Amino acid sequence: MPFNTALTRKLGIKIPVVQGGMQWVGYAELASAVSNAGGLGILTALTQPTPEDLRKEIRRCRTMTANPFGVNLTLLPALSPPDYPAYARVIIEEGIRIVETAGNSPGPVIKQLKLADCIILHKCTSIRHAQSAVKLGVDFLSIDGFECAGHVGESDITNFILLSRARQSLGVPFIASGGFADGQGLAAALSLGAEGINMGTRFMCTVEAPIHQKIKEAIVEAQETDTELVLRRWRNTSRLFKNKVAEEAVRVERESQTGKFEEVAPFVSGKRGRQVFLNGDKDFGVWTAGQVIGLIHDIPTCDELVKRIEREAIETLQKALSLLVEEGSSGEKP
Ligand code: FMN
Prior knowledge:
Blueprint: H1 6-11, E1 17-19, H2 28-36, E2 41-44, H3 51-64, E3 69-75, H4 84-93, E4 98-103, H5 107-115, E5 119-124, H6 127-135, E6 140-144, E7 150-151, H7 159-169, E8 174-177, H8 183-191, E9 197-199, H9 201-204, H10 213-221, E10 227-230, E11 238-241, H11 244-255, H12 261-264, H13 270-279, H14 302-321
Parallel strand pairs: 1-9, 2-3, 3-4, 4-5, 5-6, 6-8, 8-9
Antiparallel strand pairs: 7-11, 10-11
The protein binds flavin mononucleotide.
Flavin mononucleotide (FMN) binds next to strand 3, strand 9 and helix 9.
């Protein structure tokens, strides 16, 4: 029995599972595999050094799947920010219909993309930010609970509260992000009012994710307690895999007398983090992962994973329905 939610209908996908944007992971290999499996794969624009490289990557992805896929555009504070309007222009020119936006002051980019009729999934970690995004005309909110990998925001609200708050107050369809790895999670998200789920860390740990096998094995071995929150002092909190460098970053952050970001900067270097995915040394630099690492026990193909999630969600929803009994019946099987 196929899923029929606002997300599957609007995006033209079969299973309401989105692969969220991931820096240095969201290449065509992964995005196309997720889309071929019936979910929505997403390329990460800023993994490409220039907008023209993004154009090539979009074209490469098209040769790998005939199904819809999207592009993530993440707007982060930077001294010299990337040319976001140019990335957005390439997305539009290449005919991409679905864009995941995230980060600060997304107004101008969302306006540019909406003028071209793109469907926007905007990711946020608080209801206040979600409400601002609704005013910008986004089509879906992607509600990222405190469990999530990467930028968790500063309000520390987990999905059990955040998703119900979204249902109660947004009036725009939303998907649940952060902490999802299986069909039981998808069924729970649908029960709380979401139209589907978004997953990052779980998709890192698939055959097609273009990162070193040893990093996937490190995720399988990890527990839900093996993440670390860094950069809280600068209100830019990020959830990272707990390794020696992340622990050192937290120590410096806590003990620094000056509170100068420069002191912690060498520990949170994005360049070293990128190397981790290439050289397989989990302690070489910091890298992003969510608490959901505790729920990940294997390295399936995207097809196996998405189909398994579909099956588990259907079984879970059917099992839940079977808990209802006719009034007046004892509920005992004859
Ligand atoms: N989200 C973004 O919006 N932009 C990014 O560049 C980005 N990079 C990520 C890199 C990695 C390695 C991971 C694991 C996540 C990243 N995320 C990024 C967050 C994911 O898109 C998604 O919101 C998050 O992983 C959801 O939580 P989960 O890991 O528990 O599924």
